[in-house]
Specification:
The complex is a heterodimer of chains A (289) and B (184). With 289 residues, chain A is an alpha+beta fold. Chain A is built from 5 helices and 10 strands; from the N terminus they run ααααβββββββββαβ. In chain A, the strands form 3 sheets. A 5-stranded antiparallel β-sheet of chain A has the order 4-1-2-3-5, with no helix packed on it. Chain A has a 3-stranded antiparallel β-sheet with strand order 6-7-10, with no helix packed on it. In chain A, strand 8 and strand 9 form a beta hairpin. Chain A is elongated. The termini of chain A are far apart. By secondary structure, chain B is mostly helical. In chain B, 38% of the residues are buried. Chain B contains 9 helices and no strands. Classes of the chains: A alpha+beta (289), B mainly alpha (184). Chains A and B meet through helix 1 and helix 2 of A and helix 2, helix 3, helix 5, helix 6 and helix 7 of B.
């Protein structure tokens, strides 16, 4: 078959391209169709909201969220001599200057030194507790951890930032367990002279030699050794361990963990340990226990 | 009103001129759409889409006589119809058999009315009908039809051959009916 049009095409065209369309199905909905088309043609295009609008709205929400959250979290936000709680977030009460502009010159240097340090502390939102020693403990956030620090304030009654020497780090003092937890808030005019991070104290038991223990203590009752270290003997094994292997090392003789054969005991130590029954092990008790 | 004047005013956005153009061309274009789209409601939807594109593209159109305007509008309508059929996945044509030359009886065609011929065309399957319309009425060659419909040139030829064969049968039936009608 060729691509040329066949002869019969003209007949079809003559019939189908008739200027008078077949009246078998008159189009009654012509006006309705025009109305539909007209509304489509003249409808106003919907204004597309630009993306920067959404970004700005998100920023605004974020800016509003922080002070609202602070206000909800700290109900004592209106304390500290009438300072508004918003001052904590870097907004000055008069609203004209930045937060750092309100600080005295002496402090600015110290603060810069602190900032140059390895640690960056977020003191915003810190909560302070007043102790019995006229000191304040503050909980600050360092990264994801929270630490309690001692904070001395300038501007309190009788204290003035006279010299740079006075503006040194405060010496950490043990945190009293009976510190009252009166929560106050920072205001921008509060001058923090120094902060010292007090790591939580680890409970460490002192290692004592067995000779330091009381040689006469052969009971299971807690007692005190010559050096004043508390100890208690607890029954551990019912049967004395005999003929256990002896481990030799570079540092000398090492005995099995639960006991030592009598033949290997040195004569000087024998006198101290003769009275201890073989089925008992003495352990030292710390003063806290 | 002169059609050139109508086009000029419609270009400037005159709703009245656009309405006049629509009234002038809608019936003919609906018939044109119905040759491709069997369902009347669908054909009307396609017609509205086509006119929407015509009025939106009219400012870019340079009027060079009535035949050029008709050809432009017809082309838009055919494209809309093909797009509609493609969306409906109507061109599901996989057969590609040997195309045979089949000629239709021209005398019977002449004796039938336009409505009867349209009715015959609408009885064809969509693939046959589309290829027949594009080849016979629009005057496209098989390569162009293949590109438009996404089929091969051979398939287009095969579809046309089958369309002709089917139409011949229908026309023969119509012819006998016509002869019967005449002899009564």
């Amino acid at each position: 078959m060729s691509n040329e049009r066949p002869d019969d095409a003209s007949h079809w065209i003559n019939k189908l391209e008739d200027p008078d369309p077949p009246a078998a199905e008159p189009w009654t909905g012509k006006n309705a169709a025009w109305e539909k088309l007209y509304s489509r043609l003249h409808e106003k295009p919907r204004r597309r909201i630009p993306s920067w609008y959404w970004a700005a709205a998100a920023c605004l929400l974020l800016v509003l969220y922080i002070p609202v959250k602070q206000a909800i979290r700290g109900d004592g936000g209106m304390k500290m001599g009438g300072q508004v709680a918003d001052a904590e977030d870097g907004v000055k009460p008069n609203g004209s200057k930045a937060r750092g502009a309100a600080k005295p010159r002496g402090y600015a240097k110290e603060e810069r030194k602190e900032r140059e340090g390895a640690q960056s502390m977020m003191t915003d939102g810190a909560r302070k507790e007043r102790t019995g020693n006229d000191q304040e403990l503050a909980t600050v956030r360092i990264g994801t951890n929270k630490r309690r620090v001692i904070v001395r304030r300038m501007g309190d009654e009788g204290e003035k930032p006279a010299t740079k020497e006075e503006a040194k780090l405060a010496v950490p003092e043990p945190i009293s367990g009976s510190a009252t937890t009166q929560e106050t808030r920072y205001a921008p005019d509060d001058l923090v002279l120094g902060m010292v991070i007090i790591p939580p104290a680890k409970k460490k038991l002192r290692v004592v030699h067995i000779n330091e223990l009381d040689p006469t203590g052969d009971t299971s009752e807690p007692g005190k050794s010559n050096t004043g270290v508390s100890w208690a003997a607890i029954p551990y094994i019912q049967r004395p361990v005999r003929n256990v292997p002896i481990f030799m090392g570079n540092t000398g003789k090492h005995f099995f963990h639960f006991g030592r054969p009598k033949a290997q005991v040195e004569p000087s130590a024998t006198a101290a340990t003769d009275n201890i029954p073989p089925e008992l092990i003495k352990i030292k008790l710390s003063p806290q226990n | 009103m002169d059609i050139a004047q109508l086009v000029r005013e419609a270009k400037q956005g005159s709703a009245a001129a656009q309405k006049c153009l629509f009234d002038l061309l809608a019936d003919k274009m609906l018939l044109h759409c119905r040759r491709y789209v069997k369902n009347r409601e669908n054909a009307e939807e396609v017609l509205l889409d086509g006119f929407y594109k015509i009025f939106k593209g009219l400012p870019a159109f340079s009027y060079e006589g009535e035949p050029a305007l008709h050809a432009w509008i017809k082309k838009i309508m055919v494209n809309e119809c093909l797009m509609f059929l493609r969306k409906k996945n109507a061109f599901n044509i996989v057969t590609e058999s040997e195309a045979a030359e089949i000629s239709l009886d021209a005398q019977i065609i002449d004796e039938l009315s336009a409505a009867e011929i349209l009715d015959l065309l609408l009885q064809l399957p969509v693939g046959y009908r589309t290829v027949f319309n594009l080849y016979i009425i629009e005057g496209m060659n098989h390569r162009e039809i293949g590109e438009l419909m996404g089929i091969s040139e051979g398939t287009s030829k095969s579809q046309l051959s089958k369309a002709r064969s089917l139409l011949q049968k229908m026309l023969a039936q119509k012819g006998t009916d016509y002869v019967k009608r005449k002899t009564r």
